[in-house]
Amino acid sequence: MKNLLIKNIKGLAGILSSGNGPLKGSDLGNLEVLEDAFLAVEDGKISMYGKMSDLSGITDWRDLEIIDAEGKYVMPAYCDSHSHLVFAKTREEEFVDRINGLSYEEIGKKGGGILNSARKLADMPEDELVQDALKRLELVKSLGTGAIEIKSGYGLSVDAELKMLRVIKRLKEESDVTIKATFLGAHAFPERFKDDHEGYVTEIIEEMLPKIAEEGLAEYIDAFCERNYFTAEQLDRILTAGAKHGLKAKIHVNQFSVMGGVGIGVKHNAVSVDHLEELADEDITALKGSNTIATALPSCSFFLSIPYTPIRKLIDNDIVCALATDYNPGSTPSGNMQFVNALACSKMKMTPAEAFNATTINGAYAMEVGEELGSITVGKKANLIITKEIPSFAYMPYSFGENCVDQTLLH
Ligand code: NIG
Ligand code: FE
Question: How far is the centre of ligand 1, averaged over its atoms, from the C-alpha of 114 (Å)?
């Protein structure tokens, strides 16, 4: 592997000392930007950085690739800790239905939504799913993403859930984007269990989970705790079963209603609880002082026209917050972390620095790669964004809709 020197960097953003941990409270807004900087990469890791005037630290100039980043910012690549990037077909017909007055929940009740995606995925061969997902991975990479969590959940049968997770396993092998896999069998009740919800929960626990664990197909377990979907009590049992198979919790809660799922997640020491568009005081109490990261998905709120997660409340209570895309064909057909940053600033009143930290270092911790990714730290993997020439750091979330990323370098 060739070593690399990036020189004349206008601003090197996201510098953290090692062992920093996720950022919370007022620290979430801390952002160190070193102007007129260089950054060196050795064996795929960040080996050194500093002011251009101190560049003399590099002694071995042989076999060194040099990038001139004049006028450009360099920063850690985004860590998108919540996505459903593997799916069969897009669902723009439901988008039009919503424009014509149906709600997302009504579409789901009619057999559209998640069940629509499951029907389409059942017929699609594994290879095709891999090829399509690889294209989406390339797209999100071009927008700055260097790590992504991907969920199953459009299978909803033993075979199709395993197929989805095997697709994710192949993506891990074939892509340079860092990937974590989450088993989301409990995404919706399939047609054949529409009058026997318990039967499906049993299938998840007794049939799907043992096979997934045996093949080592997932790191996390998820469930959609929501009215018309999984109850808090079912979530509790699913997470207990997941833990027995070594899967940690990362869950969908409080998208439309408060069901007690946040407390259940915290009880299971969930890595993250995601969505939280609806938030009760009891949820804040449960999260306060816990290790569980609260993840907001503002592009889902944007697309469905539902409330944005009241993230300032979470930040003010010293709860660790991350931001992710939720990329999926129904509620968020976008894997653009730059847009997530823009929405976080304009709709959730986060500062550009807070939004950036929530999509990099805290996103990394929300997929348990915070010790290797998510910041400019000596020894961390050199997964980097080099921006186009931009006037300032805040220009990125300000200039929404523009791709400010020139290249995403992954090692
Ligand atoms: O996180 N809400 C549950 N799951 C996804 C959407 C799934 C879909 O509509 O296909 C979400 O928004
Ligand atoms: Fe989701």
Answer: 7
Question: 44 is in which domain, residue-wise?
Answer: 3-76+375-409
162-179 pLDDT per residue, tens: 999 999 999 999 999 999
pLDDT at 18: 79
> 376: which DSSP letter?
B
Same domain, 65 and 109: no
Mutational pocket test of ligand 1: of 84, 93, 253, the residue with most ligand atoms within 8 Å of the beta carbon: 84
Confidence of residue 286 (pLDDT cuts 50, 70, 90): very high
Given a cut of 90, is residue 20 above it in pLDDT?
Answer: no
Q: Is ligand 1 within 6 A of the CB of residue 326? A: yes
108, two tokens: 């789901």
Atom number of ligand 1 nearest to Cα 104: 9
- Determine, yes or no, domain membership for 138: yes
Dihedral sign from CA coordinates of 235, 366, 23, 17: positive
Q: Is the pLDDT of residue 61 over 90?
A: no
Q: Are residues 305 and 324 in the same domain?
A: yes
Q: State the pLDDT at residue 3.
A: 92
How many whole angstroms from 82 Cα to the centroid of ligand 2? Answer: 6
Of the candidates 379, 358, 376, which has an alpha carbon nearest to the alpha carbon of residue 37? 376
In a domain, 312, yes or no: yes
CA torsion, ordered 27, 263, 364, 256, to nearest 10 deg:
-100
**Ion ligand 2: protein residues whose beta carbon lies under 5 Å:** 326
Q: How far is the CA of 2 from the centre of ligand 2 (A)?
A: 38
Q: Hey, whose CA ends up nearest to atom 9 of ligand 1? A: 330
Residue 262 placed within a domain: yes
CATH number at residue 380: 2.30.40.10
Across the range 83-104, mean pLDDT stands at 96
C-beta 255 within 6 A of ligand 1: yes
Both 45 and 93 in one domain: the answer is no
Residue 370 within a domain: no
Q: Is the pLDDT of residue 137 over 80?
A: yes
What's this model's pTM, rounded to 2 decimal places? 0.98
Are 104 and 49 contained in the same domain? no
- Which ligand 1 atom lies nearest to the CA of residue 275? 1
Overall domain count for the chain: 2
**Alpha-carbon gap, residue 348 to 331, rounded angstroms:** 19
Ligand nearest to the CA of 226: 1
Do 227 and 323 have their domain in common?
Answer: yes
Please check whether residues 52 and 92 belong to one and the same domain.
no
Q: Give the full edge-to-edge strand order of the sheet including 145-151.
A: 78-80, 145-151, 178-186, 220-225, 248-253, 272-275, 293-296, 321-323
State the average pLDDT for the chain.
Answer: 97
